[in-house]
Amino acid sequence: MAEEIRNAEMGSATATATAAKKGSLWPSVLRWIPTSTDHIIAAEKRLLSLVKTPYVQEKVDIGSGPPGSKIRWFRSKSNESRFINTVTFDAKDDSPTLVMVHGYGNSQGFFFRNFDALAKRFRVIAVDQLGWGGSSRPDFTCKSTEETEAWFIDSFEEWRKAKNLSNFILLGHSFGGYVAAKYALKHPEHIQHLILVGPAGFSSESDAKSEALIRFRATWKGAILNHLWESNFTPMKIIRGLGPWGPNLVRRYTSARFDYAYHTLVAKASGELCLKHIFSFGAFARMPLLHSASEWKVPTTFIYGYQDWMNYEGAQEARKHMTSPL
C-alpha cells in the first residue's frame, strides 16, 4: 500500500508538471494559496486510484435552498445553486445502501482504506459535507447553534432528495457522527440504521467539565486558547497563512495523503467555521445529543476505538434513555 501511495504521489507531481507546461496552473502560481476546487477533485481522484472498486464521482446539485427556508447558506445574491461532492461505489443491485459522512476538517477521501471492504457488502456512497472537501463552500454567516446545525442537516436533506434515497444506513464519524445523529432525529423516516463511529457531541460542558479543564482555563494559556476558539480561529487558518509554504507543513504531518489533505484544508473557509457555534472550548456540545436521547427513533450502533479521543461516557449515558433498538 505504501508503494501504491508513493506512485500516486509521483502521478500527482507529473500531472502538476504537465499542467504547468500547458500554462493552466499559472493563475494558481500567482495566488498566495495555490489551490482550487479543481485541485481538490484532482487530488481526490489520485487518492481514490488506490481503491480497487470502481466508482462514480458527481457533483449533486442541491439548489439554492428549499422554499421558505431561513437558513443563511441558502441566501445568495446570485441565487447560485450549491452542490455536494459525492462518490458512489459499484455494488450488487440488491446491496443495502450505506451513506458515509466524514468528520471535522476531513472529507470523504479520508475513508479510502475502508471503501473496498465495505463495497463487498454495501452500495457505498460517501459525501463531502457542505463547506468541505470538493463541495460548494458558501460564505458561512450562521450566528447561532440552531442555524449552524440547519446548515448541515438541511443541505444533507436536499442532497438526499436529489439522490432519491430512502431506507438507507447512515454512518457518521466524529463530527460527522454528530451531524448524522441530528439528521436522524429530524428525519428518522429515511434511516434504516444509524452507525456512529467515535461520535462527537453527546456531552455538554456542564455534564462533563473536568477539574483539569477548569484549572487550565484559569491559566494565561487557557485564556488565550479560549479566546482563539471563540474567535473562530481554526487550524486551517494557520496553513492558509503560510501561503505557498503550506504544502510542506501538511506533507510533514500527513505523509502520503498530503496532496489531498492540503487542498481540502486550505480551500475557502466555510463549513469549518461551524466549530464555535456547535462546541464550546474543550469540544463540549452546546446542544448535546444526550439531551435528545429520549427522542431517539432509529436503531443505532456505537463504535469507539480502544483509545478513542472522543468521550464515550456521554453516549453510554444516552443509551439509558433511548427506547429505540441498539
TrEMBL record:
Domain AB hydrolase-1: 96-215
InterPro entries membership: AB_hydrolase_1 (IPR000073), AB_hydrolase_fold (IPR029058)
GO molecular function: lysophosphatidic acid acyltransferase activity; phospholipase A2 activity
Classification via Pfam families: Abhydrolase_1 (PF00561)
Top-level taxonomic group: Eukaryota
Any Gene Ontology biological process: phosphatidic acid biosynthetic process
Residues spanning the membrane: none
Similarity annotation: Belongs to the peptidase S33 family. ABHD4/ABHD5 subfamily.
Protein name in the entry: AB hydrolase-1 domain-containing protein
